[in-house]
Amino acid sequence: MVRRYGPVIFTIRPYAIPVLSLTLDFIAPAAAPAPDRVTLFADVILPLPLPRLYTYRVPYELNDSVVIGGRVIVQFGAKKTLSCIVAAVHETAPKDYQAKYILEFIDDAPVVTQPQLKLFRWMADYYMCTIGEVINAALPSALKLSSESRIQLHPGFSREENEYPLSTQEELIVDALGVVEDGKALTFTEVGDLLGITSFHKVIKSLMHKDVIFLFEHTADKYAPKVVKKVRLAHHFVAEASLEQLFEQLTSKPKQLDVLMKYMQRVPVYQNEHANQAGIEKAYLTSSPHLSASAVNTLIKNGVLEQFDQIVSRFPLENEGAIQMNFSLTEAQTTARDEIMAHFGEKEIALLHGVTGAGKTEIYIDLIRKAMDGGGQVLYLLPEIALTAQIVTRLMRVFGTRLGVYHSKFSDNERVEVWNGVLSGRFQVVVGVRSAVFLPFDNLALIIVDEEHESSYKQYDPAPRYNAREVALMMANFQGAKTLLGSATPAVETYYQAKQGRYGLVSLTKRFGEAGMPEIELVDTRKAREHKTMHNHFTADLLGEVERTLGRQEQVILFQNRRGYAPVVACQDCGWIPKCTNCAVSLSYHKHSHELRCHYCGYHDSMVSKCPACGSRAVKTQGFGTEKIEDDLKIMLPQANIQRMDLDTTRAKNSYQTIIADFEKQATNVLVGTQMVTKGLDFANVSLVGIINADSIIHYPDFRAHERAYQMFVQVSGRAGRKGKKGKVIIQTADPTQVIFDKVIRNDYIEFYNYEIVQRHEHGYPPFMRVIKMTVKHIDQAVGEAAAILLTQELVERLGRAAVLGPEAPYIFRIRNFYLQEITIKLDRAHTVLKQAKQLICEAMDMVKDQKEFRQARLVADVDPM
Fold this sequence. Notes:
By secondary structure, this protein is an alpha/beta fold.
């Protein structure tokens, strides 16, 4: 089927996005619409950082097909074709430009819902970015279309009648394209490979000038459903008499008979003829060690077996129904659940403040059941992929196929299947990380934000720089859903809102069952070094407790908030330290790959054995990360099975599940990790947690430093002694007198909060003020500093000196070759003040960008930075 709209041809194929051919000027323009016909226009969201929507004309023939939230293909600029989302349909032509036609409609139903569009507009406004940037972040990659330039012989070209001589290179291309009737096309990449050169565009331009070829864009859908090949018995053999006759015919062909017998074992045709219709996967027969693959193919060829394709889910479950996991809430959990429901009768948001190991997950499951029984959807947010491995297993036992999982380790096609599953209603509850807030819910009843304090909910780069907790609250508000925030160590801002009565507050002060809170012990590393009782980076107290724990056949978690082998490599003679070529940081040594790496930009280099500055071979590592802890332990505790969980060991898709599964079944005795091991993991046999270097977490130049440290210490401590075993936590520190340790030891969040809220009020930080951090980036340090000074002046002029702090270079002042300057803006929390202030900030940014010398500067606004 071919549709013509102006200078464009579309070839429609099943299961694919149309092939789009730019045929330049040799196709006659479409006839003008009749005067009585309604002309529709569509405002579309392009996945680009553009300040406004663009308007395109809807081809009259497709007036009834245009859907808000559907994807369309448009031409943007002279050469680009892009897929975008229809945001509005109307009859008003744009005033400033002539609207181009929409080239093609991809969807006949929305892939983005109206509630989503409303949320995306709010995100763009609140987080000071464009809605195009929000759409680009929201849509799975496989729902975006890719466009690649191709060439094809011009319909009017004939070798015999061609009046232009062709060069040898041009002849090669024409020969490769064949004849016009073949319709063969070549990509630009294939043209370069064919000619063996990289500068081939002059050849293409010459062929176009001679009317030998034309250029077009092939736009393909990157999502493909998963298809499996299946086989079934041909229908005329299903009858009992025909089947017995077939067995007789195959008596002399034992290999084929074996295949048939195997099929009959799996598909009871005698008992149920209809079972044959579904068949079985062909791979079940061809991969069987006792069967011949060629015999299977022969049976197919002879018409005994029929081969067919079937679309299947990428998330199969052995049991298609929910597997009821029976559990009952304890008296404390029941009371907490009832209090939450009571708060939901009056408020939209409730905070469940429960100590680690209090059994919050069981309460979540009970609330999810109630929401689903009422026909509503549920979103269950978690801060880390690592947590989903454990929790998904538990939830699958309860909700079966109604449960979807969404995170970045999934392939593009898997993410699209979850997206479509939410749209279709297949998934009534979704467990996911921060990007799950983009899913197309339209009937939300409940959102649960577990470990709501976690900084992992914040997106740092690129835009939108959103906090999934705040987006979840607004999503629930738009859809009339309730939100439950849960944490043992709530964010100061969250607890403040609860204390002010804006959120309901429910507390769980005791652990589930017989488990008690762990004993916490501080160990002074300065004294240990003075007394020479340190073993590498372990005090004798910690190492001895690890050995005793392993001796009792119990497990250990060791927390070190830095990955790699050593954070610094230095020459002992001249002091040379290898630095990143792109960032103002030293390179960390990774022993496994024997290389130096930058943890900011990914730059890596080989490890040096000789100092390039002075030639000395006294190049040694300083400090330690998780890799060195693991390495040292394997030497000191050769009998232990030790595993590491950090960014380096969890890059593969299923690495989280593998590491956690090994630890759960006690194939691993000691788990060494970064922040990943602090967040919500639940292991029955862990009785010891060690914090290797607490001081590196406390002493950080940020107003949230103490809050983060307290949360991290309490959370990682909470992994110990969860199932009745007496837990112990050892914290190694060079300064045991730090105020924060006393609050951690007594597990006194209220006292910590009371101390922290006074500090925030005195110094004007959240929750009393809104903070927006402006970052100026430039490859030239002097130009970047000048741009930051001008931006500060413009901001002071509009907002006042008291609201603007800076500019100043951050601790790490160069990242990815860009020099950084930061400006902090403090604003009143009132909505009207914030909205007006953002407009003034945008004006100031535009003033700076209008200066010719600063046009290459990048100005980044981060609302509510973490």
